[in-house]
Amino acid sequence: MVVRMRHTRAHTANRRSHHGLTAKALTKDTSSGSVHLRHRVDMKTGMYRGRKVIDTLAKVAKKVTKKK
Q1: pLDDT given for residue 30 in this prediction
Q2: Which residues pair with 26 in a beta bridge?
Q3: What is the distance between the alpha carbons of residues 20 and 22, in angstroms, rounded to a whole number?
Q4: Distance CA 42, CA 54 (A)
Q5: 27: three-class secondary structure by DSSP
Q6: Whole-angstrom Cα distance, residue 15 to residue 8?
Q7: What's 17's DSSP letter?
Q8: CA distances (Å), origin 32, targets 11, 15, 25, 27, 66
Q9: For residues 48 and 40, what is the distance between their CA atoms, to the nearest angstrom?
């Protein structure tokens, strides 16, 4: 039977040093001023890179009719 080796505090800390959280990369839209994640559609306005991609009003209307 093999004796398991004890991990020192330094060894454990070195392993956990990569567990630190990073802040999310947020971008402020120039036209509307809303904040959204980078490289993703702004769900409030439906804009991505200066052009309208999603019609948010139609999406909300569809959700309301579906709920009824």
Answers
A1: 82
A2: 37
A3: 7
A4: 9
A5: strand
A6: 11
A7: G
A8: 49, 43, 18, 12, 29
A9: 7
| Residue keyed to tokens 């702004």 | 42
Per-residue pLDDT, 37: 92
Judging by beta carbons within 10 Å of its beta carbon (0-12, 13-18, 19+), is residue 30 exposed, middle or buried? Answer: exposed
**Rounded-to-integer distance, Cα 45 and Cα 59, Å:** 11
Apex 64 CA angle, 60 and 68, nearest 5 = 165
pLDDT classification of 3: cutoffs 50, 70, 90: low
Tell me the whole-structure pTM to 2 decimals: 0.54
On the question of pLDDT at 2 being above 70, the answer is no
- The structure tokens listed for 24 are 């999310």
pLDDT in tens, 6-61: 888 998 898 888 888 889 999 888 888 889 999 998 888 888 888 899 898 898 89
Q: What is the DSSP string of 34-61?
A: -EEETTS-BTTTTEETTEE-S-HHHHHH
